[in-house]
Amino acid sequence: MKLEFSLPSEAKGWKWDGKGKKYNSRTLFDYINGAAELYLAYRFQNLAVRRFEKPGQPPIVVEVYEMASAEDAYGVFSFERQDEDAGMGQGSEFGGGLLRFWKGKYFVTIYAEGESPEVESAIISLGRELARSIRVSGSAPKVVSYLPDEKAGLIEKSVRYLRNHILLNQRFYISNQNILKLSGETEAALAQYLRGKQKPHLLLIRYLSEKKAEEALQSFKKVYMPEAKEKGFLQTEDRKWTMAKRKKEFILIIFGAADLGDADELIRAAEVRIKEKGR
Amino acid sequence: MKETGIITRRDFLRGTAGAALTAAFGSGISADAHAEQRAKVVLSRSAEVLTEGGKVNGEIIQSMLDEAVNTLLGEREPVKSWGKLFKSSDIVGIKSNVWWNMPTPRELEGAIRKRLLDVGVKEKNIDIDDRGVLKKPVFLNSTALVNVRPIRTHHWSGVGGCLKNHIMFVPNPAAYHEEACSDLGKIWTYPIIKGKTRLNILSALQPQFYGRGAHFFDRRYVWPYKGLIVGTDPVAVDAIGARLLHLKRIVHFGEDRPLDVPPVHISVADKKYRLGVSDLSRIQLIKLGWMEEVLI
Questions:
Q1: CB A237 to CB B5 under 8 A?
Q2: Looking at CB atoms within 10 Å, which of A34, A129, A217, B14 has the fewest?
Q3: Are the beta carbons of A96 and B24 separated by less than 8 Å?
Q4: How many CB atoms lie within 10 A of CB A107?
Q5: Distance CA B199, CA B149 (A)
Q6: Which residues pair with A93 in a beta bridge?
Q7: Which B residues 119-178 touch A at CB under 8 Å?
Q8: How many residue pairs from chains A and B have C-beta atoms closer than 8 A?
Q9: Which parts of chain B fold into alpha helices (H)?
Q10: Chain A closest CA to B284's CA: distance in Å?
Q11: Last residue of a domain, which of A133, A158, A190?
């Protein structure tokens, strides 16, 4: 791993134990058996791990994941995001003793193997120093920018960037089979919106071509909403509305809208964003 | 008409995932015979089993386990109830779980071991392990297994319970992560464990009811439920465990916040692999001990 950042060796009395572990895509399972697939799905390259110790205090573990691109680092970050912004990197959160952030092609986690009043400030301090040392920034995936913003009720922490249907199912289960034909050539963004008392999901997928998008839309309609036929919308068993539509090489799907008008409004807002942001 | 083998979110919305799963994966025995199948699960709780620091009281966990197994098997004495499950000639592997922040409590492992010794199983014929089961002679030559682990939400399978716990009996666990780990039941059909698991125990002493990732432990979503869920039917035990986590999420979040991954593998273990009962209406749950905030 060619380091394009510098790992601190001390923070608030916690000192690096002097050992450093490194993992690549073949050895990642040795470190995180059970979770490695997530990182590999986002084109994981390398991992550097350091441990910090202070007598009488829980050890702190710093993990720096190098991904293939900034989009991938953003993707890993977005996939499990749920907490408040910690104000570092290009996106961050801190909660439950776990600090996560992304910057450039790096995704970083810092956590303690236990609790103490002092350890949280040491975690934040380590994170700030590490984030500052990563010199090169990157861009979030463009497909995410097509999501309607806060004016439409976007719940920022719910935004996910997804690379395959297994990841999609982990965040919003649709089907055991890949009925939306997600692949290495597609990109998907998923988000929730606060609309009155409901929190519908908007799934936005970009395909390589309009033809492929249309094929995926028909596949989805055939399996998920066969009663809707060509209408592209229906009320599902939970009395909420699902609507699916193609716009150029994109598919837009709303799940769980309170009424048909609301689903349509969100779809239209996404169409406007696609037009505004350019393809 | 939906194609055979496909399950969608709508199957869960209409509450027919079980029927969809049957259609998707086929039926092993007749519907009538299956309709008669019922399961018994025992929930045993004690307000005193954990200290303020979260340590497990070994004596109390032993009595909780004894009460649960006695009730499950209709006996008064632990030696008699355990004697219904294990013979002195058995070679018994205790399949535990070492996940770093929520391992199976040592005290619970010890309580199981004690009762196996009490029924005459030789000490050399008992072993406790998780990730090393494929290398340990007792597990490789086992005639019986005890399956014990904490109940928690799980990144790949929705719920980490007894069915999931046997994943270490295959050399390539990651191969079972696809489709929400739906095929975990298949592992139970392999010769190394088929028909050997006599007792399934979910430690619900401090379950994790919500979380993200397989790698991280989030102490905000762990609560001192102080219970054990015990049964001979792993599917029924897991169905009860999954229901408990579901109810706790409703209480905690004030809304029905579903798991990111529905625990499809529990239904599949029932409908496809016939390992037990997943339908809660066909599970008899017997509750013992402390009833405060029992939820289920």
A1: no
A2: B14
A3: no
A4: 28
A5: 12
A6: A100
A7: 155-156, 173-174, 177-178
A8: 93
A9: 9-13, 17-25, 31-36, 58-73, 78-85, 106-118, 137-140, 162-165, 178-181, 184-187, 234-253, 264-271
A10: 29
A11: A133
Chain B residues closer than 8 Å to A59 by CB: none
B195 touches chain A (CB under 8 A): no
Taking the CA of residue A273 and the nearest CA in chain B, the distance in Å comes to: 28
Q: Do A244 and A181 lie in a common domain? A: yes
Q: Are residues A124 and A150 in the same domain?
A: no
The tokens of A253 are what? 């799907």
- Domains of chain A: total: 2
Give the span between the Cα atoms of A247 and A270, in whole angstroms: 10
Task: Tell me what percent of the residues of chain B surpass a pLDDT of 90.
Answer: 68
pLDDT of residue A89: 97
- Which of B11, B97, B215 is the best substitution to test chain A (most A C-beta atoms within 10 A)? B215
In a domain, A253, yes or no: yes
Chain-chain contact of B177 with A37 (C-beta, under 8 angstroms): yes
CATH of the domain at A41: 3.40.1000
**pTM of the prediction?**
0.77
CA pair distance B241, B264, nearest whole angstrom: 14
| Residues A86 and A185 occupy one common structural domain | no
Report the DSSP beta bridge partners of residue A112: A60
DSSP state of B104: P
What pLDDT was estimated at residue B18? 57
The answer on A268 and A148 residing in a single domain is yes
Using a CB–CB cutoff of 8 Å, tell me whether B253 touches chain A.
no
A47 close to A28: Cβ distance less than 8 angstroms: yes
Residues of B in contact with A175 (CB under 8 A): 6-9
Q: Where are the domains of chain B?
A: 1-36, 38-289
For residues A170 and A175, the model is more confident at A175
- Chain B residues with beta carbon closer than 8 angstroms to that of A224: 8-10
Residues of B in contact with A38 (CB under 8 A): 155, 213-214
Residue A5 domain flag: no
What residues of chain B lie within 8 A of the CB of A170, using their CB?
A: 155-156, 180, 260-261
Same domain membership, residue A38 and residue A152? no
Q: Apex CA B221: angle with CA A38 and CA A76, to 5°?
A: 20
**What is the sign of the dihedral through the CA atoms of B147, B152, B155 and B156?**
positive
Whether A226 contacts chain B with CB within 8 A: yes
Last residue of a domain, one of A133, A167, A197: A133
- Identity of the residue numbered A39: Y
Q: In terms of domains, do A269 and A196 share one? A: yes
Phi/psi for A99 (5° steps) reads: -105, 130
Q: What is the pLDDT of residue B30?
A: 36
Q: How far apart are CA A8 and CA A52, in angstroms?
A: 10
A271 and A188 share a domain? yes
Domain contains A169: yes
Predicted pLDDT of residue A191:
97
Q: What is the pLDDT of residue A229?
A: 83
| Cα radius of gyration (chain A) | 21
Q: Does A278 lie at the interface with B, CB-CB under 8 angstroms?
A: no
Flag whether pLDDT at B211 surpasses 90.
no
Give the structural domain span for A150. 142-277
Residue of chain A with shortest Cα separation from B211: A80
B179 touching chain A per CB within 8 A: yes
